[in-house]
Amino acid sequence: MNYDLVICGVGGQGVLSIAWVIDHAAHEAGLHFKQSEVHGMAQRGGAVSACVRLSDRPVASDLIAQGSASLILSVEPLEALRYTQMLRPDGWIVTDITPMVNIPDYPPGEKLYPVLFSVPHLVVLDATQLAKKAGNLKAQNMVALGAAARLLPFSTESLERWITALFEAKGERIVKANLNAFRKGDAASRFGAALTEAGVPGAMVAQVTSRLQFPPHPLHADLVADWTERLQAADGADFARQLFEAGKAVKPERVAEPTTPVAA
Amino acid sequence: MSSLILLGDEAVARGAIDAGISAAYAYPGTPSTEIFQAIEDEVKARGLAVRGLWSSNEKVALEEGAGVSYCGKRAIVSMKHVGLNVAADPFMNLGVSGVHGGLVIVVADDPGMHSSQNEQDSRCFADFAMVPCLEPADQQQCYNFTREAFELSERFQTPVLLRLVTRLAHSRSQVALAEPRAQNPASYVEDPARFTLIPVNARRAYAKLVAKQPALQAASEESALNPLTLRDDRPGSRPGLLVSGLAWNYLTEAMSEEQLAGFHLLRIGQYPLPMGKIRRLLDASSEVFVIEEGYPCIERLIGGNGLLNGLLGEKRIRGKLNGDLPRVGELGPDDIRRCFGLQVPASLQIPGLAEVLSGRPPSLCDKCPHTDAYAAIKEVLAGLTTADGEPVRVMGDIGCYSLGYLPPHQAIHSCLCMGSSIGMAIGAAHAGMTPSLCVIGDGTFTHTGMQPLLDAVSEDTPITVFILDNSIIAMTGGQPTMATDEEVVNLVAGLGVAREHIRIIEPTVHKMARNVEVIREEIAHPGLSVVVARRACVTYAKEIKLLREVKEQREQRSEGQPGCAGHGVPA
Fold first, then answer.
1. Which end of chain B is more exposed for a tag (fewer CB within 10 A), N or C?
2. What is the largest CA-CA distance in chain A?
3. Full-model pTM
4. Could you say which residues from 55 to 94 on chain A have a Cβ atom under 8 Å away from some Cβ of chain B?
5. Minimal CA–CA distance to B12: which of B34, B40, B44, B43?
6. Which domains does chain A have, with CATH numbers?
């Protein structure tokens, strides 16, 4: 078994905390791993990345070779696209939709999102919004990790155990918020996967999951069927686009009309 | 013992502690900073009797290490590659004097220049000083080789250089620890003559260093860190691979075991190079590929710098010099694949990616005091030209404030090396540049900025020096600075700058007008002036508060105890 992933974001977004959880889960699972990271200059609001390489055999290179990563796990949508040279053609991108605009030439949404949504294996969600709902805005990294959980070669329990260990020293409230954040990410990701499996095109799934306010957990077949039907209707693509462009949070309990989005 | 998850840097730190060091010294610099940090944390957590210091610069750090060694105890000194330039004087001379207690200098090189101004390869420095160098390839070797380095150091009475590179220093993996060794008892060097390098002694010591080389060479030949694998005994049957340090990882990533079996193999982890083993590899191989991270050190040496390459009956040497591998930048598995004509896997292609993929360079933090200092300086410079009508240039230095070169600030126009700003401003003034300005941080000022200021004092050079005092070494993650606040002013005054031309400003938005006025006055002054822009770093506010408390406690403790050392066990 070999599993390479890139974790990325902007300095201060908790990229290395995600790496810490994955490292320890790998160690606990008896896997070999190497995890290289960028320090120094990049901490000052620049792009930050960590390369994690997991294997049941000793890992050679600290760097991920071109076209070898199975997953890019990003806390920011532009950063999600920065390391695709390392991504396999059938690899996944999991990312927060919330842009971190600290550069003058940040691409406008109408240019950035269509490029991102064209990625064939994609999970995108509003990790910032979901972290806020989970009780800690800073837990957006754990939402992103949760969204990737179903793709990682570990059990959810193992990841949750190491999230607990990471935040233990900061008190029970912080641990709970981060676990909540992780679960929300996981739930949103599984809802998206269910829609994909039901035949909804990837870009539309991305538009919907980017606006979920409360990811449904546990997942109800009825709910998935409702959404699938709505999105597969003749005007389904317009519906998804309007939902996304309205830019407001949507409750998934029933199919929301884009004209009446639920306030965030 | 069970294994731990450690950075390469941290594995070196644990190796040093388990090798029985009595002291550790360092100056922070990416990617070496975490070595001392990890030692400090471990010493504090376990209450170990290991002394240590974030030294004021790398030269001092190495001299402190030399003092420990003189007393028979073990010390580790860590720095980044360009730090070894600062420490070059003691480094070269410790080769000559030799050591007493084990002394290991760990240097982290930065191929690819992730956070540095050059790609210099510390293996060349070890060769220059004629001291052994160990080059680990992974985190476990970081731990093992550190311990081995101390053994070598004491066995041959020589300092040993341990060379890391960024991708190892800043990469984590599992490391198994071994039984720790006790510290050495104090035993002062018996023959002080060898540490007293006046010519009569130095000639003897240098001859001894030269005479020591065959023994170091023999140790490399026998070393398990330099394994030679010849696949058969038919000369020229197949090509050979000569691979050092981290490059091994990229090679084994790019090639399968079956592919590797098509080559004779020599791995290098210990220098001086085992020339006997290299001779055997050359004789056995049809040609030899040299794969090394950094400079083509081995390649140049064994190919006679191109002179013997395929000539005079010698084998063809391939690598960075003939262009099979890139000469600049960091190596990677894809470079190895291209070198051997192996297929590089395809990656996901996303249409339209290039049009949206804006770069995200590092920048000064929100509310950073440097931003306001630069704004004030730029405001003054906007209305000024030099005496010969050119735009005014500002000599810069190394720290977060180096980012002042980039938009939107564009306020500095040089960044050469630590402490260079003041000397360059003096030279520019001598060359006729008026006004001549420079900017330096509090950490860099005490690192190597005080000496050039003394030069300026000696002749009252008409320059204006801005000291950006943010109370911390921020760029490398918040290490303590040697002097801040009034200490900086006292240092500057102590060096001889007139009190009336040491001006303090607080770089904030609302004090902008006042700051501009002060800067304008000091630039107009026809002699030396120093403007201290004093405001604490916003990112490391918590660390600064903690450091202030520690300092206050220490001052209270040492009251009435004039002999009390300023720094003790790392805190």
1. N
2. 55
3. 0.95
4. 59-63, 65-68, 78-79, 81-82, 84-91
5. B34
6. 2-246 (3.40.920.10)
